[in-house]
Specification:
alpha/beta; two-stranded antiparallel ribbon; 19 helices
């Protein structure tokens, strides 16, 4: 079929089946299909698009409510623009077509197609990132999720130990990462209750530390642990204590698995991220190491046309403030709609940059002393500043230069 008019495609996706709707530039429904989530279904979709004039030179734009999955990967082949629309935005558009609030999968696909027909200029297609950048994004996000999961389980374990086993918290508080250390987990497995911990011998404690991989100061650490465990602590009734010990062992196994997953994913990121062409530029920015640099690349990608300017990137990261004005009232506040992963990375980035860069430290101090910012606000401002510097470096393929980036702050500090 020849393509004399503009055609738009909307797909309402689900776990096993998808609904497809094609409309022309007047809003008339041209075709609709119901396909399965498998290779045969994807072929039906591509054949349908080709039937209505989809070619390499003039691809039909597609709207869908997700940015991930095999269906999106199939649609992104070639130069086709795929628009991942927010489900809440699509729900608002649905009210324009029906006041009865009726809903169906085919109707949702039709609404998505009409969104492109009327407001495609107001939405952005998925960025054209390289395969390596998308692979780094998968690993970096998975590693970030693993760290959050590890911290959540660690907090649960800490809360449980506080209920019946305060000696364990006191014994491990001097160690970095505390309950997440292999030594702490091995000792807890050897003594899940305070009563059993108090009966551990030096030999048993040393054996637990060796199983955890400790090689130095084993005897000293064993003596310190034994002294803490044998101190006078309040205890739960024996039956309750044993039950809490079983619950604690279950959490220990979960925490052990979470720690292993986080470490393995961190190694995978360390192998993949340096292979990317932008890695050298990103690592030249103060405060960004391999892990944080990979997270930044994962969220901003390597498509140079994704952001029109640095302001767009800053708004996407949530580092730039937003102004709300109505009548005589006006307020400037932080952004709430943002990329949460990039925003979280930004605080860690700014915190590290303060000690890694004299210019960043001077900028932070100026925001605190001269502008009266709180710590979080000063960090957010620094993140906003350094995000703009990263955008400039990536756009011009230049490494970070301290004197150029913070010339005013360095001169004032001198």
């Amino acid at each position: 079929m020849g393509r004399n008019t503009l055609i738009y495609c909307g797909i309402d996706w689900a776990e096993r089946t998808h609904d497809i709707a094609l409309v022309d530039d007047s809003g008339q429904l041209l075709a609709k299909r119901h396909i399965t989530d498998e290779a045969a279904g994807y072929k039906i979709l591509l054949d349908l698009l080709a039937e209505y004039g989809d070619t390499e030179e003039t691809p039909i734009p597609v709207a869908i409510e997700t940015s991930r999955g095999l269906l999106v990967a199939v649609l992104r082949t070639g130069k086709r623009k795929v628009f991942a629309l927010n489900p809440m935005a699509a729900a608002r558009y649905r009210d324009r077509h029906s006041v009865s609030r009726k809903k169906s999968d085919h109707g949702d696909a039709l609404v998505l197609a009409n969104i492109l027909r009327t407001d495609m200029h107001a939405h952005r297609p998925l960025p054209n990132d390289s395969d390596l950048a998308r692979a780094v994004a998968v690993l970096a996000r998975a590693q970030q999720d693993a760290i959050w999961n590890r911290q959540q389980i660690s907090n649960q374990l800490r809360s449980l130990l506080r209920e019946y086993y305060p000696a364990a918290l006191a014994a491990f508080e001097l160690w970095k990462n505390g309950l997440c250390r292999p030594e702490a987990l091995e000792v807890l497995k050897a003594a899940p209750t305070p009563s059993r911990a108090a009966s551990l011998t030096r030999t048993q404690l040393q054996a637990a530390l060796k199983r955890a991989g400790r090689q130095r100061s084993i005897a000293t650490q064993a003596d310190q642990l034994r002294e803490v465990f044998r101190a006078d602590w309040a205890q739960q009734p024996p039956v309750v204590e044993d039950a809490l010990g079983q619950q604690m062992l279950a959490l220990v196994l979960q925490l052990e698995a979470a720690c292993t997953a986080a470490d393995n994913l961190a190694k995978a990121v360390e192998e993949a991220f340096p292979q990317h062409p932008d890695a050298e530029i990103i690592l030249s920015i103060p405060g960004l190491g391999v892990q944080l640099g990979a997270r930044v690349l994962a969220e901003i990608g390597d498509d140079r046309t994704r952001f029109a300017d640095a302001r767009g990137l800053k708004a996407y990261a949530g580092s730039s403030p937003i102004t709300r004005a109505s009548g005589k009232k006006s307020s400037i506040t932080r952004r709430w709609v943002k990329n949460d992963r990039l925003n979280h990375t930004g605080y860690l980035w700014a915190f590290s940059a303060i000690t890694a860069s004299p210019g960043a430290k001077a900028h932070y101090r100026r925001r605190r002393d001269d502008h009266g910012d709180w710590h979080a606000a000063a960090q957010r401002n620094l993140f906003n500043r350094m995000l703009g510097q990263l955008y400039h470096c990536l756009q011009h393929h230049k490494l970070f230069d301290e004197q150029t980036a913070f010339s005013v702050e360095l001169a004032a500090a001198a």
